[in-house]
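Exercise 7. Given the components listed, write out the predicted structure of the assembled complex. Treat all entries as one system.
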Amino acid sequence: MTSASTPSLPGQLNPTPRLLLGPGPSDLHPRVVAAMTTPLLGHLDPQFLLLMSETQEMLRAVFQTRNELTLPISATGSGGMEACLVNLLEPGDRALICVAGYFGERMAEMARRCGAEVHVEQESWGKTFSPDRLREALRRVRPKVLGIVNAETSTGAWQDISFLGALCREFDALAVVDCVTSLGCTPVAIDTWQIDAAFSCSQKGLSCPPGLAPLTFGPRALEALYRRKSPVRSWYFDLTALRSYWGTERVYHHTAPITMIYALREGLRLVLEEGLEARFERHQRHARALRAGLEALGLRTLAEESCQLPQLHAVLLPDGVNDVQGRKRLLEEFGIEVGGGLGEYKGRVWRIGLMGYNSRTNCVFQVLAALEKVLIDCGVHCSRGSGVAAAEAFYASS
Amino acid sequence: MTSASTPSLPGQLNPTPRLLLGPGPSDLHPRVVAAMTTPLLGHLDPQFLLLMSETQEMLRAVFQTRNELTLPISATGSGGMEACLVNLLEPGDRALICVAGYFGERMAEMARRCGAEVHVEQESWGKTFSPDRLREALRRVRPKVLGIVNAETSTGAWQDISFLGALCREFDALAVVDCVTSLGCTPVAIDTWQIDAAFSCSQKGLSCPPGLAPLTFGPRALEALYRRKSPVRSWYFDLTALRSYWGTERVYHHTAPITMIYALREGLRLVLEEGLEARFERHQRHARALRAGLEALGLRTLAEESCQLPQLHAVLLPDGVNDVQGRKRLLEEFGIEVGGGLGEYKGRVWRIGLMGYNSRTNCVFQVLAALEKVLIDCGVHCSRGSGVAAAEAFYASS
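Answer.
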């Protein structure tokens, strides 16, 4: 229904409270909510410029990089992906994109939109790529850019990227990494691993609302950017201009999303107050508790244990559980959101996220209790007893 | 300074309160601030999907259109400009861009990035285009798209677009309008004026934070979109996909910036509660009060009176007033932000905005009092007496 006349107005916002334990967004940290109520500064106010610099400096710490070109793109995570690719790829450039899930496919599609000649290295969903396999593909394709997903949000699989920078250098390729689901949850060591370009989002490991895409470009990516033969096809994502805005020149480009920057700054402060190592350890700890519970309930995950992300588990649904009805019950009876499956796993997995602020004991217990109730009501035989009890036992013993 | 080690952390957010009377962002309405503290829903939660629909329906009312494809782009106003152009222009298409200020230039540059053959119709900054002149240009260029700015943020000039749709139809061109500074302040009657595509922002007339770009596409624009020979170059801004996400299919595209949508929904509720006509009248009223005060201070504006926007005045600086020092005093002594000039008017004008929530008596008095103090201290002879008194007299008599 559409109408040009004034509609009867919707009422005051009053959504039912949820616990967001899906693949993101994750719940906001209360301090992030408070930060967003801070009165606006103008986007060229000297005090705001200082906040921008502070935000960049903390982003560098979280990305573990000294890259000068480190900033939040004024768009969601997918905008960060587009910003990476559209700045590095020109029409006719070869791109090697590693696909083992939904977001690898997205990267391949975006690279095509950039006019690149895209070679897809395909793996089954939930699997990962070995250094040998990638070396072979690099040798065959000789791409300008190798794109890969560090934490595949559709499968919960962790792709090791620690070897990637060195490997890409052997073939003079740029390593571009999707860190949307990893940043703030699992290590992202841009400089140590010699990653040339990476992007992330605000609404998962950083416990902020969706709307910003942290991005970092290293020296080789920067060189490729300035060696382009054609202007960057996107004005909005053009990093040569964004660099002048976020750099010392402060040349106006677009109006920064001020409230979102406030949120990100607070989210980053929280990450660094906790400390990266402590934060990664916390994610591992609560993931182990969750897994103890899932095992007790007889549930398995899509990804193999060796590459299972701590912040996101894609749990295979047992026979007898209806995806849509089950998630509806979780949402309506328990106020818990988990994610459904994507692509070929639609209807076959539930994606449970314990990210950032939500990687904590209460969330583990709540989701296990609710899962157990729903499964038992569906007639699933939870062979090894209570999930909550198993998680409790884990916490007690660790 | 960059460092890969943990930096000493910046402190809690604590900016000095400002009154934002520049070209935007403008201050948030308090109800918008409250709306942003609402706990997150997931972006695929049925309750959030309903909020999306409500937001679209209110956006239609504010754009005065029945266009189904009416939605907020997940980017700032410039992202909305890019979304309009990248969806409508293919490489080699002719675009006629009308330039009489900074944002007309931006539109021309973006159209070039889309691969279009761009013809610029140039006018002096602060002037506007007549129907005859545009007819002549359309006849000469025969473009696919005519791009024009309804409210030029760099000059404060109002461009009449009421005739544009009919005129463009004579030449089978699409009328694309930048409504960034007009929506919520001055009339934007998309359907009556037969505008084919338009975009705006969240941080001016709608009193929300920057970060969203309301956009609307009419039937002819939609037809052009689906007749494209090549895929839209941008994945992020591809309206064929965004239409499926925001339409009844709800096909996941990217994670909507939930908190920003909460803010926009509340900003739109405020607009429609007030009523469009009452809101436009309010903007006119406080603009007249401001102008009475500016005249008393002997100040002139860049735009001619016949095309002066009520929501934004570019005031020419009198001799003896240093731009940067003067704005610094306004900011630091009075807590008031006004905008500096852009392009050839850098250092020569101050841009004073009375937009949305900030179009009110208090703001008029505050900015006139501060201006008067700064001008007198610079030795400017304010010939006709007090600006505040003149505004008071206007309010008393109207």
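Discussion: The first helix of chain B runs from residue 30 to 36. Chain B touches chain A through 95 residues (CB under 8 Å).
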